[in-house]
Every structure is written in C-alpha cells, then in structure tokens.
Design a protein that fits this description.
Blueprint: E1 11-17, E2 23-28, H1 36-50, E3 58-62, E4 65-72, E5 75-81, H2 87-97
Antiparallel strand pairs: 1-2, 1-5, 3-4, 4-5
C-alpha cells in the first residue's frame, strides 16, 4: 500500500503504525519508529489545549532529516525524507496515497 511513496523524490522510508505502536507495513530502511508515540502525545496535548479534534499532519525536523506524521484512521503514517524543501511534494503524495486529496 505505501510502497509508491518510495517513488517520490527525497523519500527515504515510510511506515504505517497502529494505535499500539506496532508496524502494520513499512518500506525503505532506517525508520525510527520511536518518534511515533511521543508524536501522538504531542498531538493529543495540542488538541486538548486548542479544543480541536482533527489534525492533518505533524512535521518534525530531527537530526536524521524531516519526518512527516500523518493520521490514517487510528494509525499514523510516518514518512521520512531528505529535505524540508520537499515537504509540499511529500504531503501531496501522502494525501493522494491515503485518498485525502
């Protein structure tokens, strides 16, 4: 399902992670899935503070490069790519893949 993301210029790896933190599917190598749990916590905290129930995505710019966390039902799609300048291209590909755009 997520293999087409590797065709997007700059994408290094991607993983779909369920609500318990288990990997549903992954492509590419080197995924740091340890960021998904804390990312969920940050998103939950922001949603509570802002009184909003929905979120689109969360961009984290970490030492290994940018990570995009995107909700898909109760799962999160983690997409790692090489440069923040590619964010628009990556977001478009993720939304198209998930049927959101």
């Amino acid at each position: 399902m997520i293999a087409p993301l590797l065709d997007v210029r700059g994408v290094r790896h991607a993983a779909l992670v369920d609500a318990r933190g288990a990997v549903v599917t992954a492509v590419g190598e080197g995924a740091d899935l340890g960021v998904v749990g804390p990312g969920r916590a940050v998103i939950g905290s922001l949603q509570a503070a802002l009184g909003q129930g929905q979120w689109q995505d969360l961009l984290l710019d970490v030492d290994g490069g940018p990570l995009l966390l995107t909700p898909h039902g109760d799962q999160i799609l983690l997409t790692a790519f090489d440069d923040v300048a590619n964010l628009g291209r990556v977001r478009f590909a993720v939304r198209r893949l998930l049927g959101q755009g």
